[in-house]
Amino acid sequence: MRIFLIHVRDPQFYALPAVTRATNGNIRVMGFPPIGIMSLSAVLKRAGHECFMFDQANPETPNEVIIEEIHRLQPVLVGLSFLSTTSYPYAKILARQIRAADAHVRLAFGGVFATLNAQLIKLQCPEVDFVCRGDGEQLILDLMEHLDDPEDVGGLTWAKDGHVMHNPNRLMESNLDQWPFPDRDSLPLDFVEAMPLDVPAVLSMERFTSMQTSRGCPWPCVFCDIPIFNEGKWRSRSPQHVVDEFTHLQQLGYGAVAFVDDHFLLQPKRIAAICKGINDRGIAIHWSCEGRVDSVAQHLFPAMAKAGGGRDRGHERQASRDRYRARVFCRRESGRDRRGYARHLQVCVHAPPGHLRV
Ligand code: B12
Ligand code: SF4
Predict the structure, then answer these.
(1) Quick check: CB of 239 below 6 Å from ligand 1?
(2) What is the mean pLDDT of residues 345-349?
(3) Same structural domain for residues 67 and 147?
(4) Which of 37, 110, 115, 191 has its CA 20 to 30 A from that of 137?
């Protein structure tokens, strides 16, 4: 079956460097790739579905173009993915425009914000058939099988006879190694590493992507929604699987990766194994990660730095920037706990060996 997946962006969170194009002709976007829909696309394609992705960071795919494509290609399902409160209004507008143009196509919302506000969203957006909660990989496969009878699709909020139906949560999938790597081939975009606003994702000027090596966080910070989204659990891919993806990315020519894990720093042994795998395979990719302050195993910083850029291909070219960033830096990321302590740490690991200051 044919599916469209759209990442609805808040226009304030990406920036287009004027007319700059990548060497392959792609539009260049300052931001993170939408690995939510890229993960779903890979899963759907592996199951034999036909999947088209649109990232609204691309100025060439505004709402009108997507609606034209829906007319032309007649997908059975259009999935809209968005991150948070700030992109919800844009997702609503697009959903309403699609519904006005096509009365039959099924519409689904998904992502963290949609998960945590599913019933309210279903009431506010009756034109959206399904609000998908939690991990999407198995959910979207199940939904494709049961578009007309979604009673038993776990994690789905939908409506029947005018009533909002809130199907039970699905069991959290613990085997994350089973999923294919995100579909990084199907968007006509190249991402550059610097972030707009104050997000310090800056790694290098190498070809950039993001990666998720674990999901969730076991801590209960009151200001954070991650424990709710993940039911207080932390699940991880194996170090081997992570290093395999690094190898794959290096083969594709990537030189910088931002881990979007909620809490990468939880298990020192796992971090050590990933760093060792990266070094053993001679991978030269800068990477950054985030985690909780008091989980930091400081003795691992040198290994992380070594695995994060010691043999950087673009290193000389980046010499001055690396000097500036040859350190592990900590930043209050998500807020403070009741006693005012910063609780989340952002670690950028891209120091050449010997340059690390903690
Ligand atoms: C990377 C990131 C960013 C990047 C953007 C990434 C991008 N591609 O655009 C940047 C730095 C720009 C960013 C900005 C912001 N972010 Co942010 N971000 C993240 C982070 C760390 C990872 C997102 C990610 O890539 N996840 C990995 C992928 C695989 O997961 P996923 O997208 O959730 O998709 C899965 C499921 O949700 C589901 N799914 C998703 N879409 C769909 C659609 C369908 C149809 C289906 C079936 C399933 C489905 O399936 C996927 C696979 O399982 C998350 C934390 C998190 N754990 O999600 C915060 C997070 C989403 N961000 C958050 C916030 C608050 C913001 C900002 C508002 C920050 C601010 N104050 O300025 C802005 C708003 C951005 C915007 N509206 O566009 C909050 C959202 C809280 C909430 N309840 O709404 C989060 C949860 C972090 C947190 N706890 O504070 N962010
Ligand atoms: S702020 Fe960080 S440490 Fe606290 S619950 Fe959220 S992800 Fe976990």
Answers:
(1) no
(2) 50
(3) yes
(4) 191
